[in-house]
Each structure stands twice: as C-alpha cells, then as structure tokens.
Backbone:
C-alpha cells in the first residue's frame, strides 16, 4: 500500500517517517487514517517485532496541518468534527493495542497531536534539538485530546501534566527527561542509531515475553493490586511454559547466549 509517509521494514524493525518537512511533518486527514490503519495491520504482521517513529527535517510532527485540517474542520458540522476526533483517538488506541514496542525518536519539533503520538509510544528518545509542546490550549482547544489527559499524568504525574496541558508551553528535551517524559536525550547525530540499537535489542529478544509485558502494563493501569497480582500470576504461568523460557534455561546450563524464537 502507498502511504503519505515513509514506511520501511528491515530485520523485524518497521520505521514510520513522517515526511512533510516543509510544514514540520504536520498531519493531514489522509496521514491520520493511513497511520491508524497501519497500526491495526501491524497487530497481525509477524514480520514486524518493533516499530520506530521519527520525522524528516527539523520536526518529528507539529500536529494537525493548519490549512489541510483546521481550515477544513471549520467548514464542518458537529458530526464531521466528532468523526475526526474519534479517528485521531483511534490512532492512540491502536498504538496502545499493538502488542509490539513502539519507539519514538524525536528529532525536532514535537507539538500538539505529534506530542500525543510520542506520548502514546512505549519509549521516547529525544535529540538535543527536540522541543515538546502540548499546545492545544494555545489554539483555544482543550488539552484533553487524543488521550493526553489520560496518558500524561500516568507518565509525569498530575501536577506536571496539568502544567504542560494548561499552559501549552514548549519544553526542551532535558526538561522532558527530568519530568520523565522522555527516556533518553542524545546528541542529534546519535538519535536514530540509538533508536535502532534499542529496536534491534527488542526485536532479537524474547518477543512474546516483551509483548506480554506491554499488554500487562496496559491492562493493569486501572486494576487494584489484588486483581493485578492475579493477572500477573496467570500471565507468568503461561510464560513459564513458553519455548523462550526453556531456551534460556538450556543456554544457561551450557553457558551460552540464548537465541530466542518468540514462542
């Protein structure tokens, strides 16, 4: 399928590169829909173990295109607006439902919907040139968009989340790292090499165990402790019977590196 972004798969690692650099990779209706559908398809694609997201040029993603989305939405009725906001929310839902790690490599401006897409990833690595802003209130919209009000407090805490969502100010990558919003800040030229190093580690690891870990973290977000303990007991009992665990044990006895098969 042809996409309005770059898509590539190598050695189990898929890469989506937003590539409208002249507008800091602003999103269009088509990009939203295509990205949503690709994320759904990746749930069933055994050739892909890890997904890396990044952008071309000076931006990761600057959010919705002012003319191609905002200008068009102002012509629509309430149903058209709701169809759009539900579609953008489904992008985040599909990111979280994907039982494969998603790494966001933030190469520059990460704003609005772009910031929420980064937020919905599992791991975030930021270039020293990156800046992040949940700018919704600055354009007269609620900061509760695409799941931001759900995800952000769980990552940075309620107070920091309210600061970022209410003011809509940009923060530099080192502040983002201090807040816990990004996992690592690296020199710009090391961004993609670091992202792919992480991606290869995950792709070559026990991918069934990794996918179960992501699934359980998602499932337990709203569980009480007793429910979570029982859910983890059941999940781990299954994994203890997996081939990868047996492979680890045999390799350990032979003092060798395990070669996992994702089963």
Residues:
């Amino acid at each position: 399928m042809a996409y309005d972004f770059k898509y590539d798969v190598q050695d189990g690692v898929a890469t989506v590169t937003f590539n409208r650099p002249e507008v800091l990779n602003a999103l269009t209706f088509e990009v939203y829909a295509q990205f949503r559908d690709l994320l759904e398809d990746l749930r069933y694609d055994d050739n892909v173990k890890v997904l890396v997201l990044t952008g071309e040029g000076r931006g990761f993603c600057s959010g919705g295109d002012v003319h191609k989305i905002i200008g068009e939405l102002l012509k629509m009725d309430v149903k058209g607006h709701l169809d759009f906001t539900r579609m953008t929310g489904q992008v985040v839902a599909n990111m979280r439902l994907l039982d494969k790690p998603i790494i966001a490599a933030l190469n520059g401006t990460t704003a609005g919907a772009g910031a929420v897409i980064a937020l919905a990833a599992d791991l975030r690595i930021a270039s020293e040139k990156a800046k992040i802003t949940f700018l919704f209130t600055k354009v007269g919209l609620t900061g509760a968009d695409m799941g931001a009000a759900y995800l952000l407090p769980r990552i940075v805490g309620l107070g920091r989340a309210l600061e970022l969502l209410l003011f809509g100010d940009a923060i530099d990558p080192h502040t983002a790292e201090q807040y816990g919003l990004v996992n690592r800040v690296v020199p710009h030229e090391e961004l993609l090499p670091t992202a792919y190093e992480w991606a290869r580690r995950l792709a070559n690891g026990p991918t069934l165990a990794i996918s179960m870990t992501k699934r359980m973290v998602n499932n337990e977000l709203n569980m009480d402790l007793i429910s979570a303990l029982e859910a983890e007991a059941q999940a781990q009992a299954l994994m203890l019977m997996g081939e990868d665990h047996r492979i680890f044990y045999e390799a350990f006895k032979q003092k060798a590196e395990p070669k996992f098969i994702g089963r």
Remarks:
- The chain has a mean pLDDT of 97.
- Strands lie at 6-10, 13-18, 50-55, 59-61, 102-106, 109-111, 123-127, 131-133, 184-186.
- The CA atoms of residues 88 and 246 lie 41 Å apart.
